[in-house]
Amino acid sequence: MACNSATCQSGGCYREDNGDRVDDPFPQPPPAVATESTQQPLSNGKNSDSAFCIKCKLKESMAAAFSSSSASAQVTGGGGGGGGASDSSRFCGDCFRSNLYGKFRLAVTSNALISPSDNVLVAFSGGPSSRVALQFVHEMQMKAQKNFDASRDRSLPVFGVGVAFIDESSSISIPAEKFSQAVEEMRLVVSNLAPPVKEFHVVSTESIYSSDSNNGRNRLKDLLNAVADVTGKEDLLVHLRMLALQKVALKNGYTKILLGTCTSRIACHVLEATVKGQGYSLAADIQYVDARWEIPVILPLRDCLAQELNIMCSLDSLKTVEVHNDHHSGINALITSFVKLLQEENPSRESTIVRTAGKLTPFHFNRMPEPDDCNMQLASQRRQKKYNLKPNESLPPESFCRICNSPLKKSDVKSYKLENQIMSAEDISNGCCTSCQFQILPKDISLLEHFYSLLPQQMVARGEYSCLGEDRWLREQIQDCLLSDTEDGT
Amino acid sequence: MEAEEVAAKPPKGRFCTICNQRRAALKRPKTLEQICRECFYAVFEEEIHGVIVDNQLFKPGERVAIGASGGKDSTVLAYVLSELNRRHNYGLDLFLLSVDEGITGYRDDSLETVKRNEIQYGLPLKVVSYKDLYGWTMDEIVKLIGLKNNCTFCGVFRRQALDRGATLLKVDKLVTGHNADDIAETVLLNILRGDIARLSRCTSITTGEDGPIPRCKPFKYTYEKEIVMYAYFKRLDYFSTECIYSPNAYRGFAREFIKDLERIRPRAILDIIKSGEDFRISTSTKMPEQGNCERCGYISSQVMCKPVKWCKACVLLEGLNRGLPKLGIGRSRGANNEQSKNAKEAKGIDSIQSKQCGTLDF
């Protein structure tokens, strides 16, 4: 039973949402003026101290500065860091910026997200989160470049940065002129973030098919049309987006993919996964590192709220580009509005959701794969130790859903053997998680086989690898006792 | 012959998809199948039987108390359980156990319903009251502490009251009518509130095996809408009003959300429960402390509130008796804002064991 006592040490008790600052490196004072600041501008004189930045106490806080402009609604409208109130409004612009950048930098350094030899591809949608991600990565790169230029021995190279925009115009209707204008604006944004120069890639979703673009576009259209469920279609598009990113990263020699996924987005994802029955694999999607892909994916903005990122963009006039309305439908839309409602009721709700989900046990691929340089390892390894994330060699390897690449719970996977490399309808289903089976795969068997034929090669190969994985693992266990090399041929 | 049959088919009706004989009378909320009443009764009852068997909830010869509030869930539970007990020879000795919190205009009415159930289903009834056990009724408690944190008191007291009643009846097990909607709501609430320890336990169909009396939830996979439908068609006697003291429970957020979700994708309720079962939570967070309360001598599998080794009910009771109603509630410091936030949230977390009477809404 939760007794809510401040001194309670019992295992079942939880700390009050607002009070638990253990993880927050920038401790906030108690949100005593929380409700007041959301109702009125602070320059009302109610509490003259709060007109000044609570950190440096020198400059005017943003709430006071913006009190007369329309931006006040955005700034004082609740939401903040680990605390309950609009911390953002109690900082001055400079302290806010350094606080936010500090979160980014802390995430990168303590999880070894970016190493000097890396070539990082930033996934850029044009929205505020990825804009801030791009900006911060650029600043980090500039600092590294400055250090490099200043150092005598030039031992640590500077990591490279590229930018990729996924063109989904074949699946989402966007007026062509608006689209090309948006792309040009993005190109301008990227070219202004130099030196160091960053390459800008525009990748269409249909590029995941190796065939020519027209054929690819038709295949993509057919694939999406084969999905009846609205939410399933939306989710499939997200999975295809990642495939496109992986492909462009591989083709152009990038070693990491950086997403601007923020706390708010993760909070929605937690609920989406829960509601779709993906509780087992949830922990895999919400860590700083996701290394189950060929090119590991990193989420350095994981601790930043959408509200903060919006403020950052308006503070520094960072240009954002809206390509399409990003209109969710179905379950995802319901959850987005639900989280918005909760966040309005309590500004620390998103953080609490992510913190709860953060207590789920991650997978072994949620740590950075061993780098060659030993020095880099140690700090991050020490952090990861508590989860003991080494893959357990006495168990067969994890298998993954063909479509969403989520780890499959062992008891849910029915083991199956491929007969003559031909996939039956049952095999197709078995290679997918229960959520994808329900919302993405067609129910009818003939439609299912048609759907399978439309899948991009990466998804097909993924399923086959999973299927053969267990066989291969078994064989490896007894390899040294086998007298003949060929048994049934692989 | 065929032409006649086709002509004889009612214009708007179609046949039940299960038996294909009778006319479909309803759409099943869980699966949206169009079926007749008899088949609905059959699938409803047999699914529950399946849950009982698959999870080995009962053993022959056990004495089982049904937590009966007079609401739809406990009424349907009593009805179905006694029916299945007969039909499938569970060999159980069933009892009705009711808790009188002392809420005028609510509980006294629902207790009348339970007394009628006792006669209708032929199950012996025992009523335990807060007044007898603790010396306080909920009306008196609310008069003292107001409408904030009252759900905390009620929830804690009820849990213990059920345990005491079960002991008096000398039963081996307690069953409650928590349904799929309740459990899904609880999973969501625990995520929203950061309670990872509860999150790992709340989807268990049987809880408290290491405590004074194990409890199980045979309705774990049964939709609330189907329970209402069953009660409606069978014309079962139940009492359907919300507790007069609970207008603002935080659980309401989750409840609304789940209702909206069910409209879009009915199976999502079961998917939430599945997610809750599948969450990877390290086992070290699972075990609460248990032992004997030093004040009432009662075994509690509840976490003790250090520095005193008292059960939660005793802590709360002490607060009431000493005129310190905030004892055991909220933080010792803090402005009023925090207290009210605590209260709203505490209600949600602590009313896990309490059931909200649903309204008959289709």
Describe the structure concisely for a colleague:
Chain A: It holds the Pfam family CTU2. With 490 residues, chain A is mainly alpha-helical.
Strand content of chain B: 5-15%
Helix content of chain B: 40-55%
- CATH fold name of the largest domain in chain A: Rossmann fold
The string of secondary-structure elements of chain A, in order, is HHHHHEHEHEHHEHHEEHHHHHHHH
**Uncertain spans of chain B:** 1-7, 331-362
Strands side by side in the biggest sheet of chain B:
5-4-3-6-8-7
Rg of Cα set of chain B: 22 Å
Provide the low-confidence segments of chain A as ranges. 1-47, 70-85, 373-377
Taking the alpha carbons of the first and last residues of chain B, their distance comes to: 39 Å
Please give a structural write-up.
- The complex is a heterodimer of chains A (490) and B (362).
- Chain A has helices spanning 34-39, 62-65, 71-76, 87-90, 93-110, 128-150, 176-192, 213-225, 230-251, 263-275, 282-285, 306-315, 330-345, 349-358, 374-384, 425-430, 434-439, 445-454, 457-478; strands spanning 119-123, 160-167, 199-204, 256-258, 289-290, 297-298.
- In chain A, helix 10 packs across helix 14 (349-358).
- Chain A has 19 helices and 6 strands.
- In chain A, helix 7 links the parallel strand 2 and strand 3.
- Chain A has 3 domains: 1-32, no CATH class; 89-369, HUPs (Rossmann fold, 3-Layer(aba) Sandwich), CATH 3.40.50.620; 410-478, no CATH class.
- With 490 residues, chain A is mostly helical.
- By secondary structure, chain B is an alpha/beta fold.
- In chain B, 47% of the residues lie in helices and 9% in strands.
- Chain B is built from 14 helices and 10 strands.
- In chain B, the strands form 3 sheets. In chain B, strands 5-4-3-6-8-7 form a 6-stranded mixed beta sheet.
- In chain B, helix 3 (72-87) crosses helix 10 (224-233), helix 8 packs across helix 11 and helix 8 packs across helix 12.
- The longest helix of chain B is centred in the middle third of the chain and has 20 residues, at 150-169.
- Chain A: Plays a central role in 2-thiolation of mcm(5)S(2)U at tRNA wobble positions of tRNA(Lys), tRNA(Glu) and tRNA(Gln). May act by forming a heterodimer with NCS6/CTU1 that ligates sulfur from thiocarboxylated URM1 onto the uridine of tRNAs at wobble position.
- Chain A: Keywords: Cytoplasm, tRNA processing.
- Chain A: It holds the Pfam family CTU2.
